[in-house]
Amino acid sequence: MHSMDHKKQIKRFVLENFLFTDDENALANGDSLIQKGIVDSTGMLELISHLEETCAIKVQNEEMIPANFDSIDAIGAFVARKLAA
Amino acid sequence: MRSLSSRLEQHALSAPDRRAIAEGARRIDYGTLWAQACAFAAFLKTSGITPGDRVALILNNGIEAVVACYGSWLAEAVVVPLNAQARARDLEPWLRHCDARCVVHAHDHADALGVLEALDTSILRVSVGAANSGSRNMDWQEAVATPGTLDAPQVEPDALAMILYTSGTTGAPKGVMLSHANLAANVDSITEYLELTRDDSIVTVLPFYYSYGQSVLHTHLASGAFLVIEQNLVFPHLMVETLAREKVSGFSGVPSTFLLLLNRVPLGDYDLSSLRYLTQAGGGMAPAVANRLREAIPQARLFIMYGQTEATARLAWLPPHMLDAKSGAVGLAIPGVELQVRNEAGQVCAAFEVGEVFARGPNVMLGYWRNPEATASVLIDGWLKTGDMGHTDTDGYLYLSGRRSDMIKTGAHRVHPKDVEEVLAELPGVGEVAVIGVDDDTLGQIIKAVIVRAPAADLSELRIKAHCRERLAAYKIPKIITFADALPKTASGKIRRSELQQQEAS
Description:
- The complex is a heterodimer of chains A (85) and B (506).
- Chain A is mainly α and 85 residues long.
- Chain A is 56% helix and 0% strand.
- Chain A is built from 4 helices and no strands.
- The longest helix of chain A has 17 residues, at 3-19.
- The radius of gyration of chain B is 23 Å and the shape is globular.
- In chain B, helix 2 (30-46) packs across helix 3 and helix 10 packs across helix 11 (287-296).
- Chain B has 506 residues and is α/β, with parallel strands linked by helices.
- Chain A binds chain B through residues 16, 19-21, 34, 37-42, 44-45, 61-62, 64-66, 69, and chain B through 85, 231-238, 260, 264-266, 442-443, 462-463, 465-466, 468-469, 474-475.
């Protein structure tokens, strides 16, 4: 899967599971998922296991930081880096 | 009685450079905290806020929330910390009910902004976090730059200090009225059994708009201790890194907080040797979890505690050395408080006889704000009827066994099923609905909605959750939604929630 497709797919997951909508405009790619209260601690676990399953990556404990997971853009870039590594 | 603001003043005068609060990269010492609180008080006074006026806060945990609280007290106003996660449908009735004369809110809190537009324009608004965003909005930075120094006012012990709303808005809101004496008494009791001193420090993630978070804040400030504010537990290992980095002596949480740390963080990889005390309240902690926690952080004393907002925060504590001997107990009454378990006839129960817990002490609230009926139903002959069921053993240790009400405890939050049911019932296509709490390994309980669809209604789970998200705080949205043909009811048509609960358990 192309990294752009990953990002779209991650966004779709967040929209469906945390915002309960398919409206792409409900969330900007740069919006903070944590500050806006979209993803809480259990939500973050769900999101990470989803990424591990669908993108075939393994997220290490030290990688679980806001810089990697706080927005669709950040997650997209993180997944792209992981897949390139 | 020594008011909480006079205690803060004392630390500010005797040790102004002592660190008081850290929030991310921001730090504030006692001298600056006091100066900002004085400035905010001066701002309130010059803006026409008079003693007894309500100042509502719609803020996440942060330095501003603390300054606004103590500043309001210095202006002899009443602080009303509102749940910053709440949506407009709760915020508006709360603001109306408490008749707020000033609202301090995050500049980008969309629901707060919307509600303020709809409310009385004479309400003084203070916006935190961005430059002045309109003529009717005062900027926080300007407010705390108001010139003014003062001594802590001599407050009447029984004067109202704070209103904490404990429920949503189905029916009349319940705003717990706490006096300055209530707050001071509970701080004294807790400080005594935790043996807090100015050398203590704590990481706190508990919201200040709940009584537990308030209690952690005020006990530590009154001791001259240091508080490190963490905003959330989204990344539990970052919280543990903070505990290790700041070498704090204390940490407070609800059962789910400790479960997150135990299950998701290799605690042995961190140097947590500075931790002296851990406190737990907000729901029962399974003895197995308490044991895991003690194994993971063996030198820290674990304090199991019990209380409720109506008692300021705390009613009972289990001395750490009794944790094994009294496994499962919430302990003994805190200093200054009396506890009784009473049967249906109102008589004090014998040991091991289950009844309802009653409490008496200087921490028991004045009543519910502008709700004499609700007040009369729980304050009876000087005693607080807690709604919690339990028994004592022959040594007087209290064990809890559920509540009379249907309230759901999920993580650090309390949710009244009716608040969620009311929102769901507004969705076209929902015929009938019942909301219950079902057991969850981490959160204690999660919210489940059982829905009977109206004839020919086409309702998806996604549609239902989207409807809830528009109207409810995220933690109130049902995690599980099931559809049923009918709900179990009594002969008079009342939903049998307990039967749904039993179906769930079987």
